[in-house]
Amino acid sequence: xxxxxxxxxxxxxxxxxxxxxxxxxxxxxxxxxxxxxxxxxxxxxxxxxxxxxxxxxxxxxxxxxxxxxxxxxxxxxxxxxxxxxxxxxxxxxxxxxxxxxxxxxxxxxxxxxxxxxxxxxxxxxxxxxxxxxxxxxxxxxxxxxxxxxxxxxxxxxxxxxxxxxxxxxxxxxxxxxxxxxxxxxxxxxxxxxxxxxxxxxxxxxxxxxxxxxxx
Length: 215
Prior knowledge:
By secondary structure, this protein is of the alpha/beta class. Helix 4 links the parallel strand 4 and strand 5. It has two domains: 94 residues, Rhodanese-like domain (Oxidized Rhodanese, domain 1, 3-Layer(aba) Sandwich), CATH 3.40.250; 109 residues, Rhodanese-like domain (Oxidized Rhodanese, domain 1), CATH 3.40.250.10. Helix content is 36%, strand content 18%.
């Protein structure tokens, strides 16, 4: 696996490869190279999530924690991806350079419940699988699973005025989704901390089911 100094890494990124940040989700939310896609290497569903959002024809540049970089690169190559290199020193190298970072902003479930009645542009975007969505979701939520995040028609339906509140089951897939949407130029979004596990505990949550999807 080739290790790249920061300048070489960024120059290579400018030629087409996607930056895949495989650090822990909490670290990613706190700061990342703008345009990076996030999938945490430690997750059991790493392979499932990567293949849902990244075409195998797209070369990959890695930002990883030092002790997992080799494992992440090997795992990606086994899946059929081309890994062009990993950033020497990881994200710390980028941050220490003083270059601008991006981040994912969390909101708590009680904040979401307070905002829903008063924000006409608020859209709850549920990125769980359709079967999970059918078993119970917030009223008026939009289901956009990871596998559809790169569908131009689905993304074109999102308007500049929309305030997106993303959630999944526990809080990881929604950060993955947020990174994909940010890479596509959609920055007016928030991540609902704790995901569906927390939302369904909210007394004010209006939950509906889709029985037709469960048959």
